Amino acid sequence: MNAPVLDIKNLIVRFATNDGEVAAVSDLSLSIGKGECLGIVGESGSGKSQTFLAVMGLLARNGSVSGEAIYGGVNLLTAGERALNELRGNALTMVFQDPMTSLTPHMKVGRQLTEVLIRHRGVDKTTARNEAVAMLKRVQIPEAERRFDMYPHELSGGLRQRVMVAMALLCGPALIIADEPTTALDVTVQAQILDLIRRAKDELDTAVVLITHDLGVVAGLADRVAVMYGGRLVEIGEVHQIFRAPQHPYTQGLLACTPRLDDPATATLVTIPGQPPNLQNLPSGCSYHPRCPYVMDRCRVERPVLTPGVSGGLKACHLDALVQGAA
Amino acid sequence: MWSYFARRVVIGVPTLWAIITVCFFLMRLTPGGPFDGEAPIPAEILVNLRARYHLDDPLWKQYVDYLISLLHGDFGPSFKYRDFTVTTLIAQGFPVSLQNGFAALVLAIVIGVPLGIVAALAQNTRRDYIVSAAAMTGIVIPNFVMGHVLILVFGVWLKDSFVHLPAGGWDDGAFANRILPVFCLALPYIAYLVRITRGSMIEAMRANYVRTARAKGLPFHTVVLRHALKSALVPVVTFLGPATAFLLTGSMVVETIFQIPGIGRYFVQGALNRDYTLVMGVTILSAALVIAMNLAVDLLYGLLDPKVRYER
């Protein structure tokens, strides 16, 4: 991998709640290379969104972080609002999950775009308008000039997400964090949005973090994939390796859960038995052991660390090699 | 929007008529009458008085006559202040109540809304607790207590200091005489506005679009003022509509404590004296204000939320 754009080391995210502290992300380290697309998959509550909200300094008020997230030699976790604000929306941008609520309802779409250009590039209003309209055209919004003067509620969900993507691309970012960008959209629109992100990655050499629970999305777009479970990284590696030969039973379970039209063997939907772990009361040893079909005595007491797997990549599992096709 | 406005004004007329009707008959149904004093009036005089004010007419005729005189802009003579018409009494008192009420309203908004924002942004910190506790205190202390406390402090204890203020009286609207009553009027509204603004601002700051605004690298004050505040103001405006109507029509308690010649005292005095026409006059005035303010609120919603449409 080439020089990393973002290097996360030993990230811990905690939330203070009425029932005590909860660790949403524990000791997570990963890096994203220039122009690379890293997929982050995991169930709800696995910490995949919180990891990157923490990096962007957007955690809820009761959240606290430790560790490092280095961008351009700066640790974003300790940089402070002022320094972060120079990067956010500029070099580091984010596309959120729900386009229906992620745009300010009482502001025209155009102004929500131009304010980014005015803030980061210091251009005048006319230039900002021209550039914003050009960007709306680039993300294939029909009648861009007219949409520019519309309020978000006058646009469909797909168009709003295009506006969000346009917003993320305005200043030519080094890294786009797309947090479930297609979850709330129709399947046909999903493909279009993903295509926009792919084009940004190819044309601008922008690195992309694609947070999703949809393995199909990851397969289509990501170079590498990181699998999270209970706030920890359980497996990371090249996308084709992980899809062909997952080295962690949880990854294997996730892949088995994906319905396939062309395979009559999965005519019934497969699920992973049990519940996602309770972060306030994580199981001892490996967090996945209560649900794992390969559980051994050792798994209940000793937490596995990330070690190289047989097919490359890293996995946090005590098994030396996972039998493929068994789950 | 203008057709919406016109339609709402037209709809206001039957509303007002219904209020007038209910109020008219409620007053007449209440036991006692305008000429029942502590010393009984001789029967012959009472007959003459009742004839003079047409109280011996059948009730329906009194009602119709009253409506007709209203249409001519005549609120009738006061039964208690016999040298005055209701129109004159309102014309004398309303400007005073209006000025004080408006000053109190501005004071309440200028202090209450920013304090509410400050408390919301500092949620669950000491600063928030201090502001919220002060607001709660302002709500639970009734203004007849607060009025006297203010008089005690600024009118009596600080009598010889430079912040001494008149304990009461109007003095033709001298500035010093206005300070305590306006503050006393505004205080509970400041407190309510702090609480409402704090609540809706906390809600707004949690919205996804505020997170988007922060993710754009906008300075914090821009995020708050440009992205969060506008939707947070919707509940504030909702509260301010009727609150404005009540403030502008004066407060019986405050005007009595500070001896201010407004119309607030007429509400209670008129009702106690069975001064039918005076009660009707001030009721119509405040009802019309409430109707107007509700319309103003609905129009303001359109400024705050582009989803609001006034067509048809």
Characteristic terms for this protein:
heterodimer, A: 327 residues, alpha/beta, Rossmann fold, 2 domains, four-stranded antiparallel β-sheet, B: MetI-like fold, flat
Description:
The complex is a heterodimer of chains A (327) and B (312). With 327 residues, chain A is an alpha/beta fold. Chain A folds into two domains: 4-91 and 171-315, Rossmann fold (3-Layer(aba) Sandwich); 100-170, no CATH class. Helices cover 32% and strands 23% of the residues of chain A. Chain A contains eleven helices and twelve strands. Chain A has helices spanning 48-55, 81-87, 109-121, 125-138, 144-148, 157-169, 187-204, 215-221, 239-244, 249-257, 297-301; strands at 4-17, 20-33, 37-41, 63-71, 74-75, 92-95, 175-179, 207-212, 224-229, 232-238, 307-308, 314-315. In chain A, the strands form two sheets. Chain A has an eight-stranded mixed β-sheet, sandwiched between helices. A four-stranded antiparallel β-sheet of chain A has the order 2-1-4-5, covered by helices on one side. In chain A, α3 crosses α4 (125-138) and α6 packs parallel to α7. The relative contact order of chain A is 0.14. Chain B has 312 residues and is mainly α. Chain B has a domain at 93-265: MetI-like (MetI-like fold). Chain B is 73% helix and 0% strand. In chain B, α1 (2-29) runs antiparallel to α12. The longest helix of chain B is centred in the N-terminal third of the chain and has 36 residues, at 86-121. The radius of gyration of chain B is 24 Å and the shape is flat. The model of chain B has no long low-confidence stretch (mean pLDDT 90).
